[in-house]
Description:
Blueprint: E1 3-4, H1 19-43, H2 48-72, H3 76-106, H4 112-130, E2 135-139, E3 144-147, H5 149-169, H6 180-210, H7 214-235, H8 242-260, H9 268-343, H10 351-381, E4 390-393, H11 394-411, E5 415-420, E6 426-429, H12 431-447, E7 453-461, E8 464-471, H13 478-481, H14 494-497, H15 505-515, E9 519-523, E10 532-538
Parallel strand pairs: 5-7
Antiparallel strand pairs: 1-3, 2-3, 4-6, 7-8, 8-10, 9-10
Helix pairs in contact: 1-2, 1-7, 2-3, 3-4, 3-5, 3-6, 4-5, 5-6, 6-7, 8-9, 9-10, 10-15, 11-12, 12-15
Amino acid sequence: xxxxxxxxxxxxxxxxxxxxxxxxxxxxxxxxxxxxxxxxxxxxxxxxxxxxxxxxxxxxxxxxxxxxxxxxxxxxxxxxxxxxxxxxxxxxxxxxxxxxxxxxxxxxxxxxxxxxxxxxxxxxxxxxxxxxxxxxxxxxxxxxxxxxxxxxxxxxxxxxxxxxxxxxxxxxxxxxxxxxxxxxxxxxxxxxxxxxxxxxxxxxxxxxxxxxxxxxxxxxxxxxxxxxxxxxxxxxxxxxxxxxxxxxxxxxxxxxxxxxxxxxxxxxxxxxxxxxxxxxxxxxxxxxxxxxxxxxxxxxxxxxxxxxxxxxxxxxxxxxxxxxxxxxxxxxxxxxxxxxxxxxxxxxxxxxxxxxxxxxxxxxxxxxxxxxxxxxxxxxxxxxxxxxxxxxxxxxxxxxxxxxxxxxxxxxxxxxxxxxxxxxxxxxxxxxxxxxxxxxxxxxxxxxxxxxxxxxxxxxxxxxxxxxxxxxxxxxxxxxxxxxxxxxxxxxxxxxxxxxxxxxxxxxxxxxxxxxxxxxxxxxxxxxxxxxxxxxxxxx
Length: 540
């Protein structure tokens, strides 16, 4: 049998519970509950979550006010009539809290049948209440009411069931494919609702069976924290953040505590000091809120810029793909024309025309390579490239690439030397993309080495494969080293030396090597002193 104690019974407790504590424990949660629910509702009036939270908060506030009356009132009739409603109100706000959590998990409203089911579980306590059976007796000298044991048992099992399902709900975000920020907000929201209902239900039950009613009062101080966490989760993807919202409510709570002192201090000096402190606190709060408002506006502006930036990036990506495909199509068509001239498709041609056709074909091939490079970078950045990871012989890839590059190297009078140490060069990787990075490094050395030689080395040390590409070319200045492996990171003289330079080659190398769990770096003693590039990959 559940017994709830009130102000008439305080003397029996030896004045252990102060009236101020009772007012604070109830009025502060009422203030926070109403304010938070209104904030949520005004922010999203048509959202079913905001409506569910408003209904939940409203019924919980009614319960707080009703419970406060049973504690502080000395009017037996008012206590009796209020007491008879409390269990029903508790059942209703537990059901509404469960409804809120269910809607949040589903990301949509529940079916009408589900709503009728939730309404159905409140019918029994409502019937018991309106037929005046919720209170079975009243001890007038002690100001104690006795709740219906059947209703108490029903409430206990229903709350236990709701807590169990809400606890299971709180694990749902871990299994959803959401971003970390959104997943964190979901965990906070569902966990806070579970803790809110748990703290309320458990402390009320313990207070009723132990007679230590202060447990219930102190628990009411903790409950607004969970309400704030729930509200933060609702707003987490909007203009509010935990810093702003927690500051608001800490200040509001301080002002309420400060202002409420005026109701209880009797000494005139204390009243004046309290009033002066309250005025100063209000002034400081105004300045603080003004700064927070400015910060919120800046955050909104930054988020708007971020959205605009994302839209621009998407538009740029679409434009890049459109242009590159159009350009590649044009290069491909002219490539076949030049190839047709060279293979006699269009009849015999003069040596001069043949030379021009060979140059045209070379330029077309270079153009197609450039377009492919830009497209590959865009696809690599967006994660659209799917690597076919297999165990491959990296030495075989290097040797094949060197054979392909001998013709352009020899055309410039460059020597290619190799220094392959004994060892096994098996790695896990995508053969196509690893060949691309070797080809890119050799192309760079050929383009930027006017005379001399290119040396390619391979060795294995400590289960790491090391590829080195060294040349006697233009070298790298300290200024240009800062832009190596960056998107568009060309040296200041790159275009003058190599008209086909895009600044995307080494950037592509870096992205591919990182996906293969390796690293790449470049070295040079300075301008005119050649350069050395190294690739390190784990062996298998």
